[in-house]
Every structure is written in structure tokens, then in C-alpha cells.
């Protein structure tokens, strides 16, 4: 459900307002006004943005915890990451006031595994009261926050623990033991979590085969160095080949440039001059004429 809600457009809907355009005629403007939705049927834009950011948080925070040791991560929501970076750049962070600040504060609480604080931040947003069935929506949000915070907690601390007890996780996140078992089983089946379930003891046994953060950074550095070495080799090949060879290879062979033949130099009496020119670098005819005239 959160993945579908994440795809809704955040920009104003075309049927909820007119965009000022100078190249529009009067008839076109009247036609567009007829297509407008009545004001009492408009969807609140703050509610749309709240749904978008909340659904992005429910997807992005567990993924960030799972991909923390990876060098490259894909962005699920650029606008959500923009809000997180803007919040981190603030020199002084106070209590959340706006809707965006509440979502960012809830995201930071989810990172630490504090599902109650995350739930309180999200449910304190006044935009949720615009729904018809407010209680059902808030109950669904609280359940999703509990489940995603559980996944985030397991992803974040899977490298520290050798095993986790399902009963203990059920008490920490106030979820039924069957729900915790189902969430962990899905994570293992999808290979998001390298672990196994021990049914008699009801524990999660971790398999520490994943490289830690230092090892993954070293692998990323080695990969970048390899790419840089390949790039330098290509540059050296271009440098030794010369521009004419590169151009001839691109054109399919053959000499692309036609150089004119350089004149031959002949020596007379220890002095060299070009063929067809005199001692002063001028044609022989001009020197002979001057000698005859003198």
C-alpha cells in the first residue's frame, strides 16, 4: 500500500486550478474552467504531500538500514532525501512544527528503533484528520510503523547480534509473535537478511557472511582504483597513437590527413639551402636578375 501511495503526484492537480499562461485565448480559458473540479471536491495538497512523504519514509528507512554497508544506494524518493539533508544542515534543531519536520523527526526515530516516538510524530500531523475514516487510517499507520521499525531494527543490528529472540522482539515492538515470525520469514526468503530461524528455541540465528562497513568501503575503493587505471590506460593509448591514427581508426582506416611534401635541402660549400631558392632564401631567378642589372 505504501508503494502505491508513494507514486501519487505531489504537484497541484490540473483540475484543481488554472496555470497562468499568456498564449491562451479566451475560449480556451473558458473551456478549461468548465473542466475544473468544484472547490468542495478538491484534494488538499498538504494531505497529498503528507501521504507521499510518509510512504517514502516507510520504504526508505528500512532500505537505508539494509544498504548501509553498501557503497552505492539507489534513491527511492529524492524529495524525501532532500528533506533529510536539509534537516541535517540546520545548526540548531528544535521541536518539529511543520508537517515536513514531523516526518523527518519520525524518520530519525525509526532509524533508532523507537517506534513509539515515530508513531507519535506521524499521528500528531493534523492533515490526517481530513480523511473520512480517521481512526482506521491512524490504526493502519501505527501498525505499518511498528512493522517497518522492526525491519529497520533487525537490519541495523544484525551485524552485532549472533541471535535474536522472537519473544523479545514481540515485546519490544508490541506485535504478535505470528506477525514477527512472518516478517522475519519474508526477510529471509527474499534474501534481505542472512539468517535462519530456529523453531524449537524461537530465535533468529545470524549468518555473518556479509562484509562489514570497512571491508565494503575497501572493496569500493579497489573498484574505483581499477576504473581509474583503465581510464589512464586508454589515455596513454590515445597519446601514443596520435590524433591521425585515432581519426583513421574512427573513419575505418587510411590516412585522414594529407601532408604536403617538404622541399629537399642541398648543401654547397658547407651551407644548406632549399631546392629552388637562393642563398638568401629567395628564388635563383631573382638573384640572377639583380646581378645582371648591376
| Oligomeric description of these chains | single chain
Question: Tally of extended strands?
Answer: 5
Strands in their spatial order, largest beta sheet: 1-3-2
Quote the average pLDDT: 76
Alpha-carbon distance between the two ends: 107 Å
Which structural category fits the helices and strands?
mainly alpha
Note the beta-strand portion.
5-15%
The topology string of helices and strands comes to: HHHHHHHEHHEEHEEH
- Spatial shape: flat
Number of helix segments?
11
Question: Low-confidence parts, pLDDT < 50 over ≥5 residues?
Answer: 246-251, 253-262, 281-294
- In helices, the fraction of residues equals 55-70%
| Biggest sheet record | 3 strands, antiparallel
Radius of gyration: 36 Å
Helix and strand topology:
Elements lengths: L1 H4 L20 H9 L10 H22 L11 H11 L10 H13 L3 H9 L10 H24 L5 E3 H8 L3 H13 L5 E4 L4 E4 L6 H39 L13 E4 L2 E4 L9 H10 L1
Antiparallel strand pairs: 1-3, 2-3, 4-5
Helix pairs in contact: 3-5, 3-7, 5-6, 6-7, 8-9
